[in-house]
Amino acid sequence: MRKDFLAIADYSGEQITEMLNLAIQLKKEFLSQGNKPILEGKVLAMLFNKPSLRTRISFDMAMRHLGGDALFISPDEIGLGKRESIADVARVLSGYVQVIMARVFNHKHIIELAKWANIPVINGLSDYNHPCQAMADLLTIFEHFGKLKNINITYVGDGNNVALSLMHAAAKVGAHFSIASPKGYDLSEKAIDIGTSFARKSGSRLQFLQNPHEAIKDADVIYTDTWTSMGQEQEAKKREDIFPPFQVNSKLLKEANQGAIVMHCLPAHRGQEITDEVADGPQSKIFQQAHNRLHAQKAILVQLLTKD
Fold first, then answer.
1. 54, 65, 109, 130: which is the annotated catalytic residue?
2. Is residue 216 assigned to a domain?
């Protein structure tokens, strides 16, 4: 395994499957008797440039369940790359804790942290991707369908960091991925090229469309996310005028495969990208997906911090 967890693209399909199997094992153990304290004496430093509910609480509780501890460090306490250089922060923390998780705006900050730290660095989210979310997504899909190979995943909405990690994850494990985004809000060509290279090896099929009704045909999983991500607030009004045809609602859901599930990484702007009827409906896996952040991240931590 690699030293750091920065992007799904860094891992093979086999390594991703290995981590998912570990997440399943750790979740089963937790629900039956509680996890063994295999990370006793280990401390996670959590650096936040962006606020979070799921990332902060799930990582904190993951360390507690596994016998370790976690330290929350707010933006004002460090001023990553402003008050103190990223290189200095990485080298100082390397002498205090055993692993760093950072949730940042600029992906370059994650890369630089990993470059200078001599302990593992985990990408809790960056403007480029969201690999921890993708692991929880795969875990949720596997739990429902019992497999990932040839599952049809359709993402509807902005081609953002969540969509990118989901595409790369699907392509790595042989799931099919379609995305419908408004023109000008697509995934980047570079990300698509990388995903296409993964798909060739796994047998995954990728589609990039602008019509959500076309993309949703044969979908087993319908996935959406907020139209306006943190850092894009100045674009909110413009996006609210462009994205309504991409809302995941009951009418769109009926066009997918019977028994399709609905996913959203949260927080949700109900009434915009998703309706209450769908988010709270019988096909929604949104909260199981949120809870699986805890178990997927346990697997990531164990892989990075233990030899066996």
1. 130
2. yes
Q: Look-up: residue for tokens 């997927």?
A: 296
Catalytic residue among 168, 225, 295, 297: 225
Is residue 265 flagged as an active site residue?
A: yes
Closest CA to 150 of 111, 193, 202: 202
Query: Does the annotation count 103 as an active-site position?
Result: yes
Structural domains of the chain, count: 2
Please check whether residues 241 and 173 belong to one and the same domain. yes
Query: Residue 284's domain spans which residues?
Result: 133-289
Residues 247, 265, 272, 289: which is the catalytic one? 265
Q: Over the chain (308 residues), what is each successive 10-residue block's mean pLDDT?
A: 90 97 98 98 95 95 98 85 88 97 95 97 97 98 98 98 98 98 97 98 98 97 92 86 98 97 97 98 98 98 92
User: Is 236 contained in some domain?
Assistant: yes
- Is 288 catalytic? The answer is no
CATH number at residue 15: 3.40.50.1370
* Active-site residue flag, 132: no
Scanning 12-94, the segments in alpha helix (DSSP H) are 13-32, 54-65, 75-78, 86-93
- Judgement on whether residues 116 and 162 belong to the same structural domain of the protein: no
> What counts of helices (H) and strands (E) characterise the chain?
13, 9
Question: Structure pTM?
Answer: 0.96
